[in-house]
Design goal:
Layout: H1 10-17, H2 24-39, H3 45-73, H4 85-88, H5 93-116, H6 122-135, H7 149-170, H8 175-198, H9 200-206, H10 211-215, H11 217-242, H12 254-265, H13 274-298
Helix pairs in contact: 2-3, 2-7, 2-8, 2-13, 3-5, 3-6, 3-7, 5-6, 7-8, 8-11, 8-13, 11-12, 12-13
C-alpha cells in the first residue's frame, strides 16, 4: 500500500515522527517538580526552564531512537498506532538515528549546564538517563523487549524527572516532590501500558516481550486502572505533605482518567485504544498542572 500521497513530508514529517502527543509526559514532571519547589519557597525560574529543555529533548530523542531501533529490527512493519519514520520507509534509518542522537545530545548539553550550576554528581544521573534512552529498544539486548519498559518510564519520567527538577532548584528532596513523582510516574506508565496493550498482537508475532505481552490482555487492563488509582492516591499524599488541600486540584484529570479506564476495562482493542493514549497523556499534563497551581496557591 502506498503512503506517499497521504503521508506528511519535510518538516511536518519530522514533527509527526517526534510523536508530539507524547510530549506532555516530558512537561508534566517538570511542572510537578517545580510546584514542589514553590511550596518549599525555592523556585528558580531559569533552572526550571533548563530542566524542561532537558526533559523535552530526551523525550524527543527517545522517540526517534525507538523509531530507528524498532524500524531496523522490523517490529514496526505492521503497526496499528501513529506513523513511524523508518518502519513506513518515509525516512532512512541513518537520518532518524542522527535526529535521535542530536536531541539526546541537546538534552545532555542542557543537563551539563544544570549540573554545573547545582552539583556535578547529577552528571551520573544524566548519563544513566541517556543509556536508558538508547537501550530501551536499541542495542543487542533492549530492555523494552524484556518487560522493563514501565520500570524505566516510572524511574526516569517519574522519580528522576520530578525529583531532579525539585532538587536543582532547592538542592533537596521533599515529601511533596516524592508524592508528586509517584503520581506523575504512574500516569506516564499508564500511557505505555495502553500503548503496549494495543500492540500485544503485533508484538507477540515479532517477539517483542513487553510487559503487556507477559501479563496478558486482561491483567494489563487491570494494571492500567491500578496505575490511574495510584496517581490519585499520590495526589492526596502530596496534599498532606504540603499541608495544603489546594494540591487536590490535581483531580481535574479525573474525568479524562475515568473515561480512559472505562474504555480500557470495556475491552477496546487496536485503533480503539489510540484515543486512550491521547487522553492519558492529557490527563497526566492536567494532573501536573493541577498540582502546580495548587502548590502556587497554597504556598
Amino acid at each position: 500500500m502506498s503512503t506517499a500521497s497521504a503521508s506528511p513530508s519535510g518538516l511536518a514529517l519530522w514533527i509527526e515522527g517526534a510523536r508530539p502527543r507524547t510530549l506532555p509526559a516530558a512537561v508534566a514532571p517538570v511542572l510537578a517538580g517545580t510546584g514542589a519547589a514553590v511550596v518549599a519557597d525555592g523556585f528558580v525560574w531559569w533552572k526550571a526552564l533548563l530542566a524542561l529543555g532537558v526533559s523535552l529533548a530526551l523525550q524527543i530523542g527517545v522517540n526517534y531512537a525507538n523509531d530507528y531501533s524498532d524500524g531496523i529490527k522490523g517490529t514496526d512493519d505492521d503497526r496499528v498506532g501513529p506513523l513511524r519514520l523508518v518502519g513506513s520507509g518515509l525516512a532512512t534509518p541513518a537520518a532518524v538515528k542522527r535526529a535521535a542522537l542530536g536531541f539526546l545530545g541537546l538534552g545532555a548539553a542542557l543537563g551539563v549546564a544544570l549540573a554545573a550550576t547545582t552539583t556535578w554528581w547529577l552528571l551520573l544521573v544524566g548519563a544513566a538517563a541517556l543509556v536508558a534512552a538508547w537501550t530501551y529498544t536499541g542495542g543487542p539486548s533492549p530492555y523494552g523487549y524484556r518487560a522493563l519498559g514501565e520500570v524505566s518510564v516510572f524511574l526516569f519520567f517519574g522519580l528522576v524527572a520530578v525529583l531532579g527538577t525539585t532538587y536543582v532548584q532547592l538542592e533537596e528532596v521533599t515529601g511533596t516532590s516524592v508524592a508528586a513523582a509517584v503520581g506523575v510516574g504512574a500516569l506516564a506508565c499508564a500511557i505505555l501500558v495502553a500503548n503496549n496493550l494495543r500492540d500485544i498482537p503485533t508484538d507477540t508475532v515479532s517477539g517483542k516481550r513487553t510487559l503487556a505481552v507477559v501479563l496478558g490482555d486482561a491483567t494489563s487492563r487491570r494494571f492500567y486502572a491500578l496505575l490511574c488509582l495510584v496517581a490519585l492516591v499520590a495526589a492526596v499524599a502530596a496534599a498532606v505533605a504540603a499541608e495544603s488541600s489546594w494540591l487536590l486540584l490535581a483531580f481535574v484529570c479525573v474525568p479524562l482518567v475515568a473515561r480512559s479506564v472505562r474504555t480500557v476495562l470495556a475491552g477496546a482493542t487496536g485503533p480503539a485504544l489510540v484515543p486512550v493514549l491521547k487522553k492519558t497523556g492529557v490527563a497526566e499534563l492536567l494532573y501536573a498542572v493541577g498540582l502546580t497551581v495548587g502548590c502556587i496557591i497554597g504556598s
